[in-house]
Specification:
- This protein is an alpha/beta fold and about 200 residues long.
- It has eight helices and seven strands; from the N terminus they run βαβαβαβαβαβααβα.
- It has helices at about 15-25, 40-45, 60-75, 90-105, 125-140, 155-160, 170-180, 195-200, and strands at about 5-10, 30-35, 50-55, 80, 110, 150-155, 185-190.
- A seven-stranded mixed beta sheet has the order 3-2-1-4-6-5-7, with helices on both faces.
- The longest helix is centred in the middle third of the chain and has 18 residues, at about 125-140.
- It is globular.
Length: about 200
């Protein structure tokens, strides 16, 4: 099975090198969408063997994910795992999601900070995420505990059915609506998020 890791990144020269290096030790196909960065994100990621697609200006998180979706179809992979570039996600969690999506019947696995042991999420952020999850579940008829987690695993056959045209973070809700609309099978898996002063500011 061909596993692709997709990383949206904007001005992440501080973290992108360590993240790409760790992921390249496990996976041959690492895509970085440099969403209009003005720093060394593109240069660092390219030097470590990532496939880098550069947006000439900052288009937004959703636009970066859409670019990664499109590139994953060209590579003709089997599985795509999306992974944030700010250092919050664990490579070990990405491995777990990748291994599970290969052998399970589901089309999409959503990472969740609130499935199982609750992560150390700042209180205000936790309240906002819970409210967003409630609204999204109400609108879509889905049953998720975390609707805005950047760590996901998708079969590329499912990616081909998803039509994302929202550029900002609201794309998360649109993606979930698309999963519901196309009646794709899904589930959640617990993930750990490591909050730092840097990632919270981002």
């Amino acid at each position: 099975m061909k596993i692709i890791i997709g990383i949206p990144a904007f001005n992440e020269e501080k973290n992108i090198g360590a993240i790409v290096a760790k992921l390249k030790m496990k996976y041959d196909h690492v895509i970085v969408c440099d969403d209009g960065s003005s720093d060394m994100t593109q240069t660092i990621a390219s030097s470590l063997g990532a496939i880098v697609i550069k947006h000439h200006k900052n288009l937004g998180y959703g636009a970066a994910i859409k670019t990664i979706f499109n590139e994953s179809k060209k590579i003709d992979g089997d599985v795509l795992v999306t992974f944030d570039a700010d250092g919050q996600h664990s490579v070990r969690d990405a491995e777990k999601l990748a291994s599970e999506i290969i052998c399970c019947k589901e089309d999409v696995i959503f990472g969740s900070r609130f499935s199982g042991k609750v992560a150390d999420v700042p209180m205000v952020k936790r309240l906002i995420l819970k409210f967003a999850t409630y609204i999204t579940n109400f609108i879509t008829g889905m049953h998720l505990t975390d609707t805005h987690n950047g760590l996901k695993a998708l079969k590329v056959s499912a990616v081909r059915k998803l039509n994302i045209d929202i550029s900002g973070y609201a794309f998360e809700s649109q993606l979930i609506m698309q999963v519901s609309k196309h009646k794709l099978h899904y589930k959640e898996m617990p993930t750990h998020v490591y909050y730092t002063e840097y990632s919270i500011k981002k």
